[in-house]
Amino acid sequence: MTLLASKAAPPVEQAAPARKTLARRLVPYGYLSPTIVLIVVLMVVPIVMVISYSFRDNVIVQENSVFAGFANYTKVLTDPDFLVAMKNTAIFITVSMVAHLVLGLAFAMMLNTQLLSGVTKAIFRIVYILPWLFTIAVIAVIWRLLLDPSGVINYVLHSLGLINQSVNWLGDPGMALWAVTFINIWSGYPFFMISLLAGLQGIPNDLYEAAAVDGTNWFQRFVHVTLPQLRPVIISMAVLDLIWTSQQFALIWMTTGGGPLNTTEMLSTYTYKQAFSEYEFSTASAAAVIVLLLTMVLAFFYVRQQRER
């Protein structure tokens, strides 16, 4: 018996280090578990529920919903209002992204120039970054007052003789989309400016000095030195801006509500109206899934670009 006990002891001694190794490997997952639980509860579960709703009919409104297959997706994709929202969203995000890039780069280069003193640069930085400090609600209220037919914008233009009568910028079907796009550009360009300014300050001066020695002018240095060095930042910011702008809701809802005559209807406002105005939660879920897929395409290109960097 003693001999058998002595032979059985070593496996018990070997099991203890194995348990310690397993416990050591599980420690990182213990630290990550609160975040994982939050992601599952706040993201994964709602997304799965919305996807399931999109394949059923009369969800939430009625207790016994029935499986509808792709009927909700067919209804959404053939809805003229959805197609108008798709077109408006494409125009809105494309124009906003291009304008954000151009204005952000222009102001960033102005703040990075050696021709201005430090005090002047500090003043301009405060002025340029002001639009980014306001919340969307404040921005919407300010611009609704400014663009009102009796507002400051019409008064100034009328005083300069540029218009003969007041323009209802947010109520005119021909002007509303461009008005909200302008507001979005105004509120979003500081983020581009700050990011591009950081990129400009990270470009070595040796590159500019070498280009100057080769006899290049400022435009050639901008094309062959500045832009290539800023390319990773520009691509990352452009993709992120497309994702963020495509999900813009508060600004549109608080300025025009998608009107007039659906001229400012976006995918976000269309989905909201389907859910909380029409109470078509199945259709709203299908529209939300379509928006999710479009956003995932943009996110894929962003992640791929980051990996290449």
TrEMBL record:
It is a multi-pass membrane protein. GO terms for biological process: transmembrane transport. Residues 86-302 form the ABC transmembrane type-1 domain. It comes from the Bacteria. InterPro entries: MetI-like (IPR000515), MetI-like_sf (IPR035906). Gene3D superfamilies: MetI-like (1.10.3720.10). Keywords: Cell membrane, Membrane, Transmembrane, Transmembrane helix, Transport. GO terms for cellular component: plasma membrane. The keyword Transport applies. This is Sugar ABC transporter permease. It comes from Paractinoplanes tereljensis. The lineage of its organism: Bacteria, Bacillati, Actinomycetota, Actinomycetes, Micromonosporales.
